Amino acid sequence: DEYIVVFSRSTTRLILNEAELIMALAPEFQMRVVTVSLEEQSFPSIVQVISRASMLVSMHGAQLVTSLFLPRGAAVVELFPYAVNSEQYTPYKTLASLPGMDLQYVSWRNTLEENTVTHPDRPWDQGGITHLEKEEQERILSGKDVPRHLCCRNPEWLFRIYQDTLVDIPSFLEVLKEGMKIRPSLKKSKPASTVHPG
């Protein structure tokens, strides 16, 4: 019984039309879709569900480390919010391509600013920008692409990565179908004896 897992988030980086996304995935791939949530389920129960899934769909975030538990040949589908360039943030793409993982990686990026909900009034570490000078706030709000930066405290990065996203279903399905054309080759292999650093 093949199925797709969608990571559901309840506080930040929401998929605003999650139900619509699920309803589009099921008939497109002729599989049932189940949701998992770090806020509502135990980690072992999430791992158990993911370990038998054919596909894992999630907004960019640490929960994607659970793709480690996907079976060989499964797909990892990472969604990126508006103005976040998927080519610059590749830890889960790298994870999927490690020797012995044999996962298929596909990314979708929201390119429509009207399909995003920002939260400038949140605390700085959740993407808020009201603590910044007015000029800096305006620069961030008008940005179309987060520039490369050193990790984690960059206000432009935080502002954009904590957005909520309305997924454009037609473009998402198009990217997904195109990305799924090339499947990983599942050669018989001995268990990897080498540990690969993340």
Automatic annotation (TrEMBL):
Principal subcellular localization: membrane
Membrane topology: Single-pass membrane protein
First and last residue of the signal peptide: none
UniProt entry tagged with the keyword Membrane: yes
One GO CC term on file: endoplasmic reticulum
Domain Glycosyltransferase 61 catalytic: 4-77
Any Pfam family matching the protein: Glyco_transf_61
Record-level GO BP terms: protein O-linked glycosylation via mannose
Molecular function terms, GO-annotated: protein O-acetylglucosaminyltransferase activity
Name recorded for this polypeptide: Glycosyltransferase
Organism whose genome encodes this protein: Lestidium atlanticum (Atlantic barracudina)
Gene name in the database record: glyt
